[in-house]
Amino acid sequence: MARHILILLLIPFWASACQGNEPQHTMYDTTPIIKTEKEWLAELGPERYRILRQKGTEYPGTGTYDKHFKDGIYVCAGCGHSLFSSVSKFDAHCGWPSFDAAISDQAVTEKRDISQGMIRIEIVCPNCGGHLGHVFDDGPTGTGLRYCVNSLSMQFQPITEDRTESPIKPLE
Question: What is the DSSP track for 59-127?
Fold first, then answer.
């Protein structure tokens, strides 16, 4: 419990420590990122491009972060925008990483999705517009929410022992 409180207390520090690392975006940066589809493909590679830019999905159980439970922050793989804290992650047994809350009210944008014969709520990165996954109202925690996210749409930034170093790193 104390570890989770510490993580929540350090989130604003981590975000402010990132402000000089261009083109890195924090949870407080609302500057939209605009690139051509050719630029996105070159930067992301074919699989991340398919998910983030073409609204694809991973096969259940194949994503890196499905069973990943280390302390840190999950950021957008397209721009580095802070999305979710490990404090809100849980195993939904659905085959995708699941969270019961975004890291802040501005961390994700929700959009109505009527594709594939279903009515769902899509979640996208507010900075780069990248498709992250969907949010459902069947979560088992107090929020009642289950953010079901593609692993390839995120990067994990672990908590570092040196608290003066920002855990948010630029994409490689």
Answer: PTT-STTTT---SEEEEETTT--EEEEGGGEE--SSSS-EESS-SSTTS-EEEEE-GGG--EEEEE-TT
* CATH code, domain with 54: 2.170.150.20
Residue 125 among the catalytic residues: no
* Domain membership flag for residue 48: yes
- pTM of the model as a whole: 0.77
Whether 110 is in a domain gets the answer yes
Domain span at residue 80 reads 2-20+33-158
The whole-angstrom separation of Cα 53 and Cα 66 is 21
Q: Mean pLDDT per 10-residue run, the chain (172 residues)?
A: 46 40 46 89 97 96 95 96 96 96 96 93 96 96 96 93 48 46
Domain count, the chain: 1
Distance CA 9, CA 7 (A): 5
Question: Which position among 18, 125, 128, 148 bears the catalytic label?
Answer: 148
